[in-house]
Structures are given as structure tokens and as C-alpha cells.
Amino acid sequence: MLPLIRWTVTHIAPVFIVTSPVTSYADQIYSIHRNRSSAGFSLDIPLIMLVASILKIFYWLTARFETSLLIQAAIMIVVQVLLLNVSLQYRNFSTSNSGAQRDLHKPFASAQDTDPSLGRPYNFWRWRSMRPYWISVAYYIVALVALQLLLGWSSWFSVLQGYIALGVEATLPLPQVLANEKARSCKGFRLSVLVNWLLGDAMKMMYFFLAPSPIPWAFKLCGLFQSACDAYLGVQYWKFEAGKSGVTLQGGVAKEDSAELSEKWIPAKDPRYR
User: Tens digits of per-residue pLDDT, 52-109?
Assistant: First the structure.
């Protein structure tokens, strides 16, 4: 059993880690493009992964951790740029009164036009046009380059980079967890993404703790936290999606599934159905 585990850690785990950005998010990108809607998908996921993955590239310059983890970070940046682009392209807002879709390609909205549920300082990462997102990412990279040139020689700065990068990545499931709780639904969040996250957590934990070469503790501690959050996402998916096929309660009155209602006879003279 131990030789099999050792062989998995040294041969399978690195390949899985390197390809995990593609296997985790390709289906989500395709689904958004096919449905022409990113409703239900949290834009904070690309934000978190871009911040963490770009910082991990700079962390590698001083920590020189496993090459497979560096390649994963580079591929993740490309995948998240694609995911952010397609999510913004097919993102829709609706007004609280009419429900009409808004044009996201207009310049920044005025205060009264902004969705009140999206309030953040300076409306950060909730802008209506695409350009500010890419400008923010560019400024972030320039700031990291400047810090690397000024403090890259310091060992404590390297350690701080690692814990910030991996700590940010560990919060990845939290925006989706909060979005699911608020909507009481997992609609828009692909089951394939969740399955890949859970499989990735299992493989990463095995790799972090059993790899022949030492892995920084920042990877291990932050990985454990992220695994716990991903597991709760699994609980949410079971809790919110399992009861959809049965009878639900609305206003204290039992209502049958809409598919069943559509098959029932509707009185022709009932004004509710005119």
C-alpha cells in the first residue's frame, strides 16, 4: 500500500496539480459561454485566484518551491483571465423594479443605478465596464514588481508573500459559499467545479504532506482551511439542490414542483390564468 501511495504522490499528484486549473474551470467557462449568462457565478473567484496566483509567481523567486506548483500558478493565471473575460462578457444586472437587463458596457453607473446589494468601497470589482478590471490587475502586477525590487532580498518578506498568497487562495470558496447562502441555491455553480475542487484538495493534501521534497508550511496550513471550506460547499450543494425535485413550501402552503403543475388541468375561466 505504501509503495502505491508513494508512486501516486511522485507521479500522479504533480500531473493532477498542474492540470487542475483546466479541469476545474474549463466546464465553467464553457457553461457560461453556452448559456450566455454568468448568473450565479461569483466574480470574486477570478479575483481571488488572480491575486493569489500572481503573488505565488513572485513567491517562487525567493522560496523556489516545487516546479509543479509554479507551473500550476502560471496556468491558473491564464485560465482565470479567460474565466473573468467570459463572465464579464455575459454578466447581467436587473433593476429591482422592472427586472430589465442593464448594459454593462456603459461607463461607470451613477449611485442610483448601482445594484444596492453590490455595495463596496469605490464599487471595487463591481464595475460596469470591463476596462477597470484589467487596469486593476495591471496595477497589482506593477506594485508587486516594485515590492520585489525593494524587499526581495529579505527572508521575512518571502515568508510573508507565501502566507498572503496562499491565505488569499484559501478564501476561494467563501464568496461562493456566501452567494449560495444568500440565494438559498447553487444555481450557476457547476457541480463539475465542486467535484474538481474536492478531488484537488485530496490530491494536494497528499502531495503537501507526503512529497519527498519539503513543501513550505504555508501551503499545508492554507490547504487545510481551503479543504474545509470546499467540503462545506459540498454540503450546500446537497442541501440546496437535493430538495428541488420534491414538494416545496411557499408562504406556509405546500406547492408541487412546476413540472407537475404544468401537467394539471387549468380552469379556462379562472382569471388567474388569463
Answer: 999 999 999 988 888 889 999 999 999 999 999 999 999 876 544 433 333 333 333 3
* pTM for this predicted structure: 0.72
Cell of 3: 509503495
Return the beta strands (E) in the chain as ranges. 248-250, 253-255
In the beta sheet, which residues pair with residue 254?
249
CA 44 – CA 42 distance, rounded (Å): 5
Q: Give residue for cell 488569499.
A: 168
Q: For residue 74, what is its C-alpha cell?
A: 502560471
Mean pLDDT of the chain: 79
> Contact, 81 vs 68, CB < 8 A?
no
What b-and-e string marks burial along 183-205, b requiring 16 or more CB atoms within 10 Å of the CB? eeebebbbebbbebbeebbebbb
